[in-house]
Write a structure and sequence with these properties.
The chain contains four helices and nine strands. By secondary structure, the chain is α/β, with parallel strands linked by helices. Strands 1-2-5-4-3 form a five-stranded mixed β-sheet. The longest helix is centred in the N-terminal third of the chain and has 12 residues. The N and C termini lie far apart (about 60 Å).
Length: about 200
């Protein structure tokens, strides 16, 4: 049976192995997070997979993040980020890796699909929902939305009702796209939006 090392030891091991290739190796709530510049992302991920102190054989999850509203909280920096969770079965340890996309207009990072096959559909999902481009991905195309879909629905500036709607037209015997016909409606509960709702003061 393999016992996991303490998070503090994992933090020290990763700091020693990765050195100045990464921006920081943080420990919070018992979890280690490695933040890496986009330029070093692929080489760091390869090291995390292959180095003796790491051996992260499995990519468990990869997702996009849109930090566009964080400026409201006083946080500055790039808008888009890719977050990856890795697992080492042989050493029984986990790590989170964060890489910020340097260009908000064209969020782009390297693909890690050649390192872990499981990254394939995760990267396609992040491309589809956030518009993050994974350079080197062999088949980067939409995976959840329709091929004719406009925009990226998990971006925080994407309208709730979307831009177009799709339906099957029986007369034309094909699928057609039309402007959204859904009327926006008030979704805030009355108890919140009405000052004296139900006689409450």
């Amino acid at each position: 049976m393999t016992f996991s090392i303490h998070p503090e030891q994992l933090q020290q091991n990763l700091t020693a192995v990765l050195g100045n290739q990464v921006s920081k190796v943080e420990l919070a709530l018992g979890e280690v997070t490695v933040t890496v510049p986009a330029a070093n992302y692929f080489s760091v991920m390869q090291t995390l997979r292959d180095a003796d102190a790491c051996k992260f054989e499995q990519l468990m999850d990869l997702c996009g993040v849109d930090y566009s509203t964080y400026a409201d909280k006083g946080t500055e920096g790039p808008r888009f980020c890719v977050v990856v969770h890795l697992l080492s079965l042989s050493l029984n340890q986990r790590v989170r890796v964060m890489v910020l996309c340097p260009d908000d207009d064209l969020p782009l990072v390297d693909s890690v699909n050649v390192l872990w096959n499981s990254a394939n559909w995760y990267e396609r999902e992040a491309f589809d929902l956030y518009g993050i481009v994974f350079e080197g991905h062999q088949d980067l195309r939409r995976i959840l939305t329709d091929y004719g879909f406009i925009g990226h629905p998990f971006r925080k500036d994407f309208p709730i009702s979307g831009h177009v709607e799709m339906r099957y037209d029986a007369e034309r015997a094909r699928v057609i796209y039309e402007p959204v016909s859904i009327e926006p409606r008030e979704i805030t509960p009355r108890i919140i939006r009405e000052e004296k709702y139900g006689g409450l003061h």
